[in-house]
């Protein structure tokens, strides 16, 4: 036996002479059967997980206690959907995530690197928010006005709703059909004004805040990255 002492570094723990925690021999086998055959049963289990869990943060989870609990349950990355809410909502969400991360670090007495990702709105069409975030029932033949005026962005009612498409009135015409929420509500445009489109409900249903809008028979020219996306990314 060699008389040379073995130095055990922190990343070698518990002992470099014991079986490795990494199943390197099995990892690169060509078949699943060969992989199972090459596994070392005496190899100790890893003390840390290799699986990453990304959670989408919404109104129900946007508080520090809930976020700490999500990290306790294994969340390693938080996704902030920029298509929901307004700019201040997103700022509050990111602030809560950072506060929760600091609290989790102190609780565990170690640094926990929580990743924060954002999901841009993209080129799709969406309506704005409704008053008090309450759903609105739209009966048949009901008249609804879609507006691009941002003053209505979070003040939608059964009569007036914001739509995030500045070129709305230049791209659509009377008679065009709009599908709200994948067809949950169907609107037909009756009148186009400077920044408004007066619509008639031809498919009754309930709408919620920030639902998607599709114009199946209209070739809309939507940029891959909108000005609003760029503003959100600068956040």
UniProtKB/TrEMBL annotation:
Pfam families: PK. Keywords: ATP-binding, Glycolysis, Kinase, Magnesium, Metal-binding, Nucleotide-binding, Pyruvate, Transferase. The keyword Kinase applies. Its cofactor is K(+). Pathway: Carbohydrate degradation; glycolysis; pyruvate from D-glyceraldehyde 3-phosphate: step 5/5. The keyword Manganese does not apply. InterPro entries: Pyr_Knase, Pyrv/PenolPyrv_kinase-like_dom, Pyrv_kinase-like_dom_sf, Pyrv_Knase-like_insert_dom_sf, Pyrv_Knase_brl, Pyrv_Knase_insert_dom_sf. One of its GO terms (molecular function) is ATP binding. Its EC number is 2.7.1.40. Residues 51-234 form the Pyruvate kinase barrel domain. Belongs to the pyruvate kinase family. This is pyruvate kinase. It comes from Graphocephala atropunctata.
């Amino acid at each position: 036996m060699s008389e040379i002492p073995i130095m055990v570094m922190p990343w070698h723990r518990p002992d470099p002479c014991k079986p490795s925690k990494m199943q390197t021999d099995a990892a690169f086998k060509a078949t699943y059967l060969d992989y199972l055959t090459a596994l070392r049963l005496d190899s100790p289990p890893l003390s840390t997980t290799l699986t990453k869990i990304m959670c989408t943060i919404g109104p129900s989870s946007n508080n520090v206690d809930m976020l700490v609990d999500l990290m306790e349950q294994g969340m390693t990355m938080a996704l902030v959907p920029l298509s929901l809410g307004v700019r201040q909502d997103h700022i509050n969400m990111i602030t809560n995530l950072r506060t929760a991360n600091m609290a989790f670090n102190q609780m565990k007495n170690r640094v926990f690197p929580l990743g924060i990702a954002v999901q841009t709105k993209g080129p799709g069409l969406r309506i704005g928010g409704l008053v008090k975030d309450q759903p609105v029932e739209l009966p048949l033949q009901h008249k609804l006005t879609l507006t691009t005026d941002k003053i209505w962005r979070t003040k939608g009612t059964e009569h007036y709703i914001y739509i995030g498409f500045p070129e709305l009135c230049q791209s659509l015409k009377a008679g065009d059909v709009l599908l709200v929420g994948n067809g949950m509500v169907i609107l037909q445009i009756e009148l186009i004004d400077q920044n408004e489109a007066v619509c008639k409900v031809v498919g009754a249903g309930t709408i919620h805040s920030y639902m998607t809008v599709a114009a199946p028979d209209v070739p809309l020219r939507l940029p891959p990255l909108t000005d609003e996306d760029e503003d959100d990314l600068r956040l």
